[in-house]
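User: quick one, sequence for these tokens?
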């Protein structure tokens, strides 16, 4: 069974009168291997004792994972269409994006790769044996 974190946090809030070890023991009996660690039980118990009432995790600081958006994908695609020899660094600089995100957009979303210093969509690349057969049929 998959138990949501909020249910486990509510269990800690309910059982905090038993102490940390008692709470952890009872939660291990109920949740088994999906139980929170003793450190997590201690941390949540401490939070509830200091007055916290919400069982949901608080949002964490840092950059949101909304960098790869439809607008950014379209912007990268238009830059590549305008200049097939543009580099990842140039795209990242012009769009104020991280190079890893630009690379992810190019490879995973646009399915492009560099062939002879030119960005080529995956569906336009020919398989080597198909290229060989094409050249032989064309020039023989």
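Assistant:
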């Amino acid at each position: 069974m998959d138990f949501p974190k909020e249910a486990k946090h509510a269990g800690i809030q309910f059982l905090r009168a038993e102490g940390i070890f008692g709470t952890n023991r009872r939660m291990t009996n109920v949740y088994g291997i999906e139980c929170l660690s003793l450190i997590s039980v201690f941390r949540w118990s401490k939070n509830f004792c200091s007055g916290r009432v919400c069982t949901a995790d608080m949002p964490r600081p840092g950059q949101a994972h909304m960098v790869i958006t439809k607008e950014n994908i379209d912007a990268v695609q238009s830059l590549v269409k305008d200049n097939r020899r543009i580099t990842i660094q140039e795209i990242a600089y012009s769009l104020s994006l991280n190079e890893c995100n630009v690379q992810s957009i190019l490879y995973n979303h646009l399915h492009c790769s560099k062939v002879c210093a030119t960005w080529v969509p995956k569906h336009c690349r020919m398989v080597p044996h198909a290229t060989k057969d094409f050249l032989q049929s064309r020039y023989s």
